[in-house]
Design brief:
The complex is a heterodimer. Chain A is mainly alpha-helical. Chain A has helices at residues 2-6, 53-59, 61-79, 115-151, 153-167, 171-182, 186-213, 216-223, 228-236, 241-264, 276-285, 291-319. The radius of gyration of chain B is 24 Å and the shape is globular. The chains are: A mainly alpha, B mainly alpha.
Chain lengths: 326, 315
């Protein structure tokens, strides 16, 4: 439940109008340095009451349902093999294109592998890849944004021009370019997602860093003789986490779409390893003979993305008073 | 305004130049490089041929010289020839670019025709059940990756025998009706998802403007609700649509690659994918640059249209 925990009452959340990689649309013309507005914790302000998850669920049953669904999928992905669904790679001639039946609830694929076992393993692979690439991108991007925002001047200019340049590549073109260098496979997917998302995190981290740098407590730390790395990590970072966590959530869903899209094209996860995208790729080939091979991963992927977006939407509606129904 | 146009155009040109440079550098990092891609395992057996090929492609020159030559050719619109078919990459780029641009344009049309009215409808009935329904439907289509939607569409159309072509491409010069039929499913797969994005932006934009003081003023001076809605609210609220339609271009370009693959359309995306498969790197390098250039130019067009539409924007 990271999403509901991080969207506290103090930030204006990024609108979920995101592109393929969970990349928020570029700033509207005229405000090139647009950044999420962060109201800094003010001294002496009474602590705001944070609604309990239960209260939120009562007000938004749809959001609660989406959160439960995601938690369920996540649990399946984490415990995976312990569920006793069988070996995702074991072939069996008797189960070739077998329609769903007891003992083989989601049917068999073109090699007679258990589609349910492959779905569970595919969820593990897709989720792990999405999480790893999103975290890596967040780490690099946030560091770049902190350095750019805090030091300003030449470093800032360099980082911002670099992000401008990377924003000029639509994600999939970037993926094609990287696939050409690394060859099809997991490293290419990872690099693509990281390169496409680092500039987003750099932008999101830079804006609030600029305003935190100008605060008195940051100045006080500087006067006390703290070195810049210490000020940035101990004083700036803890105060800009909210927009970064929101961005992380969007990046996770974007990374999931990117991984499955690339695997669907044959540029990502390679056989026999399953992922949501590569399962869909196999399924498409045999869709008339064994529609379950295509429907199972396709609907799972669509439902997962829908749940993430629904949760984001509902949370925003609950927490942003301007969008609330009066 | 004139200065703004110049500055914005210069930025766009610089960006495309930067993209081209990145592409050039990355392509030099391909393991084995162009010669091995051409010769495969034979490279080790015939150093002489390797040397001849290296000199043919200018690979024996210093990297800076190579870059200069390559950039000069690219500026003249010459991206070399394909390693697999020996044909001019530029000619192919133009032919296939037309397919991709048509797909993206048709999808944009669908996104505006469907998304704009749906967004306005939902916003005018905000927080009603109808708005809720439109919002949920929009969210569903917004969330389905276009390749999942495309695959599902093919499945439905082919199992129900609806008689629509699910793959292949017919040239408009051969049969315009057949051409449009072959573009229908790809356009829908791409356009419906983009329509959901447009709908969401239009709805929130209209809702926001409805709360502005000038709307209250218009009502207070006794204007009919219809006049308020159409003369005052929509004129202001619909300007961001221009932006979102422009931003969608990049998204559509990305989506088009996958959609072309699913529906076997001979567009830029499939060209690039085949290029990767055969390690045909003049092809990959040219398609990526062309795609990024289209994206940057679309962004430029949006910014200029925006500046022209919105008199409040001063540059």
């Amino acid at each position: 439940m990271t999403v509901s925990e991080q969207v506290g009452s103090e930030t204006e959340t990024t609108p979920p109008t995101t592109g393929p990689l969970g990349v928020p649309p570029p700033a509207a013309p005229g405000d090139s340095a647009s950044a999420p507005v962060v109201s800094l914790p003010l001294a002496g302000r009474a602590p705001q009451r944070r609604p309990t998850p239960w209260a939120l669920a009562r007000r938004s049953p749809l959001g609660a349902g989406a959160a439960l669904f995601l938690l369920g999928l996540l649990a399946v992905a984490v415990v995976g093999p312990l569920l006793g669904v069988g070996d995702p790679l074991a072939t069996s001639p008797l189960a070739m294109f077998a329609p769903p039946r007891p003992g083989l609830p989601l049917g068999g694929d073109y090699l007679g592998r258990d589609v349910l076992a492959r779905l569970v393993e595919g969820l593990r692979v897709s989720f792990a890849l999405a999480a790893a690439s999103a975290l890596l991108a967040a780490t690099i991007g946030i560091l770049l944004g902190l350095v750019a925002g805090y030091s300003g001047g030449g470093a800032d200019e360099a980082v911002m021009r670099l992000t401008d340049l990377l924003f000029a590549f639509p994600t999939l073109l970037l993926a094609l370019l990287i696939a050409m260098v690394t060859g099809p496979g997991i490293p290419g997917v990872l690099i693509t997602i990281v390169v496409a998302t680092v500039p987003v995190f750099a932008r999101v981290a830079r804006g609030p860093t600029l305003s935190v740098r100008a605060t008195e407590y940051a100045l006080a730390a500087r006067v006390a003789g703290a070195a810049p790395p210490r000020i940035v990590l101990r004083h700036v970072l803890p105060n800009i986490t909210s927009p970064l966590l929101v961005q992380l959530a969007f990046t996770l869903s974007g990374a999931l779409v990117a991984e499955s899209g690339l695997s669907f094209l044959g540029l990502g996860v390679q056989p026999p390893m399953p992922s949501l995208g590569s399962l869909l790729r196999d399924g498409r080939t045999y869709m008339e003979l064994a529609p379950w091979m295509m429907l199972v991963p396709g609907l799972t992927l669509a439902a997962t993305i829908l749940a993430i977006n629904l949760l984001g939407d509902e949370l925003q509606g609950l927490l942003d008073p301007r969008l609330r129904q009066r | 305004m004139g200065r703004y146009v110049t500055r914005r155009a210069a930025t766009a040109a610089l960006t495309i130049f930067g993209v081209a440079t990145i592409v050039f550098v990355l392509m030099r990092l391909v393991p084995g490089g162009i010669v091995e891609a051409l010769m495969g395992n034979q490279a080790a057996q015939s150093p002489e041929l390797v040397a001849r090929l290296r000199s043919k492609y200018g690979l024996d020159q210093p990297i800076v010289v190579q870059y200069g030559l390559w950039l000069g050719n690219a500026l003249r619109g010459d991206f070399g020839e394909s390693l697999t078919s020996q044909s001019s990459v530029t000619a192919e780029l133009v032919r296939r670019g037309a397919v991709t641009v048509e797909l993206a344009a048709l999808a944009t049309l669908v996104s505006i025709v469907v998304g704009l009215p749906a967004g306005v409808f939902a916003a005018l009935r905000r927080f009603s059940p109808a708005d809720g329904a439109v919002r949920i439907v929009g969210l569903v289509f917004y969330s389905i990756p276009e390749f999942v939607l495309g695959t599902l569409l093919i499945f439905v159309v082919s199992t129900r025998a609806l008689g629509l072509p699910v793959s292949g491409y017919i040239l408009p010069s051969e049969d315009i009706w057949g051409h449009l039929r072959s573009m229908l499913l790809p356009t829908l797969s791409l356009g419906v998802v983009a329509a959901a994005v447009v709908m969401r932006v239009v709805r929130s934009s209209v809702v926001e403007v409805l709360g502005e003081p000038f709307v209250t003023t218009a009502r207070a001076k006794g204007l009919a609700e219809r006049t308020v809605t159409w003369q005052h609210v929509m004129r202001t609220a619909l300007i961001p649509t221009v932006t979102i339609v422009g931003i969608n271009t990049g998204y559509l370009l990305s989506g088009a690659v996958i959609i072309e693959e699913i529906f076997s359309l001979p567009g830029l995306g499939r060209y690039a994918l085949q290029g990767i498969l055969y390690r045909d790197y003049p092809v990959v390098q040219a398609t990526v640059i062309a795609g990024a250039a289209m994206f940057v130019l679309a962004g430029l067009a949006v910014d200029l249209v925006y500046a022209w539409l919105d008199p409040r924007i001063k540059y």
